[in-house]
Write a structure and sequence with these properties.
It is a single chain. By secondary structure, the protein is of the alpha/beta class. It is built from seven helices and seven strands, in the order E-H-E-H-E-H-E-H-E-H-E-H-H-E. It has one domain: NAD(P)-binding Rossmann-like Domain (Rossmann fold, 3-Layer(aba) Sandwich).
Length: about 240
């Protein structure tokens, strides 16, 4: 396995959950992390906890200029970017009949455009250097859909398509990895407003769920491969999850 020490890793959606857990583990392994999210108070707390090998940039991934600024700030601080992890995402799922169109728009902006803007911001830098690694978080919902998650699932299928095409285009120099988490103990889903979905999830509170650290370990596994090996897809489910 390749050492992660001194790698510069940019993480969106890093103020809590999977992103924050990974940031802690990566810096323990010697990486330098650039943390991006909208909630500055949580970013400040996390950077204070991690120490000098971390910095943060308040970032709304739905804004292309914010992603451009994020990469510029990372390069200004650490000189280059080795890894870009497009991890920000939201999951206000609902049934189509409920017509939560505003929430559909937000999922498209964050889950799809956020990934595209992240790729657009970092790819020229990596191509110029002749190396780099781009990861994006999809979901097992990006492999198989079910009632109530149609739009969310559609955004995560889009991430799969975007990343697979990117892999084919840059396979000679840039590593590309898509992470597909199963049910996870995280804040994702806290913004669900659908009473029907909340009722459904009320019956699933005892279902098996991954710790956030499990996804962090999957990302570390992908990042730490030798230069001549790329892990393109990682699916991580808790034991007992069937979908």
């Amino acid at each position: 396995m390749q050492s992660i020490k001194d790698k510069v890793i940019v993480i969106t959606g890093a103020s809590s959950g999977i992103g924050a857990s990974a940031a802690r583990k990566l810096t323990q392994l010697g990486a330098k992390v650039v943390l991006a999210a909208r909630r500055e108070d949580q970013l400040k707390t996390l950077v204070t906890e991690i120490g000098e090998n971390a910095m943060y940039v308040v970032t709304d991934v739905a804004k292309r200029t914010d992603l451009d600024n994020l990469i510029q700030q990372a390069i200004a601080k650490f000189g280059h970017v080795d890894v870009m992890w497009n991890n920000a995402g939201i999951m206000p799922i609902s049934f189509f009949e409920e017509g939560h169109v505003d929430e559909w728009d937000k999922m498209i902006d964050i889950n799809i455009k956020g990934v595209l803007y992240g790729i657009n911001a970092v790819l020229p830098h990596m191509l110029q250097r002749g190396e780099g690694h781009i990861l994006s978080t999809s979901s097992v919902g990006g492999l198989k859909t079910s009632p109530g998650i149609g739009v969310y699932s559609g955004t995560k299928f889009a991430v799969k398509a975007i990343m697979e095409t990117l892999r084919e285009e840059v396979a000679q120099t840039i590593k590309v990895t898509t992470i597909y988490p199963g049910a996870t103990k995280s804040e994702l889903g806290h913004d669900i407003t659908s009473p029907k979905i909340k009722g459904l999830y009320g019956n699933l509170t005892n279902m098996p769920k991954l710790d956030e650290e499990a996804i962090a370990n999957a990302v570390i596994y992908a990042i730490s491969q030798p230069d001549n090996i790329t892990v393109n897809e990682v699916v991580v489910r808790p034991l007992g999850q069937t979908r």
